[in-house]
Design goal:
The chain is mainly α. 74% of the residues lie in helices and 0% in strands. It folds into 2 domains: 1-20 and 193-271, Serine Threonine Protein Phosphatase 5, Tetratricopeptide repeat, CATH 1.25.40; 25-188, Serine Threonine Protein Phosphatase 5, Tetratricopeptide repeat.
Length: 277
């Protein structure tokens, strides 16, 4: 028999995290997005050595990169100096500062009439705001990226997914559902899209959808503890004690010191008899 209170504990503590392979957490996703943008960005015309130097510092010596980027910014460094500054802050885990610098880079790119880079910077700002636990600011940044009309294909799907993450973090489930469905169509290889969709479906009491989507997440990232924790939550909500126990046990075994394992242990405790008084 599943006890409702402990089931709610497991549900409320589910870690909803982000590509095929391990599901990246907010901070990891923001770092990966910043690194991807840095790798894709061409150096500014006429001054590639300075851009390359700054970006190398942003990875190897973020504090020095911040000094270099600030100096460069006062010397007409424009969006590239702001990008370097943002990446350096990202590598220090200074999420508010990183988000603000990415937004400044986006503004510089818009002034330079570089729409594709502006859209990319807005999405990086959104991810940094999510890592900073400020979903309203994240949504505003991602809205700017989407409004630009510059995002296509996978990048567009990921932006919708990020906006859905912001909506879920703000408790706005209906808006999140519409964005997740777009993300699934355009970025369906990202296990976070399926995990977030499954979690949202469970919270909205749509168990068939939750079961379908968590199966997709398991197929893509079955070893991830956030995926297994949610698989257990959904099985428990469906009354499948054996499947719930199996999924939660996998979480505890795979990552015993993690927050997900703590939630799984609390959920598993409902199966054990209370000690005699």
């Amino acid at each position: 028999m599943l006890l409702p209170l402990l089931l709610l504990i497991a549900q409320d503590r589910t870690a909803v995290a982000p590509k095929a392979g391990p599901v990246l957490r907010d901070a990891e996703r923001a770092r990966a997005a910043a690194a991807k943008a840095a790798a894709a960005a061409a150096p500014p015309p006429g001054e590639p050595p300075r851009f390359t130097k700054c970006m190398d510092l942003a990875t190897g010596d973020p504090a020095a990169a911040i000094d270099e980027a600030v100096k460069w910014g006062t010397d007409k460094g424009g969006m590239f100096a702001r990008q370097c500054l943002a990446v350096a802050y990202t590598n220090q885990g200074r999420w508010d500062s990183a988000a603000a610098a990415f937004e400044e880079a986006a503004g510089e790119a818009e002034t330079a009439k570089d729409g594709p880079r502006a859209a990319t910077y807005w999405t990086q700002a959104g991810n940094a705001w999510l890592a900073a636990k400020k979903p309203p600011k994240a949504r505003a940044a991602i809205n700017a990226a989407l409004a630009s009309g510059q995002l296509k294909g996978l990048a567009l799907g990921e932006a919708y997914l990020d906006r859905a993450r912001a909506a879920v973090a703000s408790g706005e489930n209906a808006g999140a559902r519409a964005d997740i469905d777009v993300a699934l169509a355009k970025a369906g290889d990202d296990p976070l899209a399926w995990l977030l969709s499954a979690t949202l479906a469970r919270r909205m009491h749509d168990l068939p959808r939750a079961q379908k989507d968590i199966a997709e997440a398991v197929q893509r990232a079955g070893d991830d503890v956030s995926v297994q924790l949610e698989a257990g939550n959904i099985a428990a909500a469906a009354g499948d004690e054996a499947a719930a126990r199996a999924a939660w046990t996998k979480v505890v075994t795979a990552a015993p010191g993690s927050p997900q394992a703590a939630a799984a242990r609390a959920a598993l405790a409902q199966f054990d008899p209370a000690p005699a008084q």
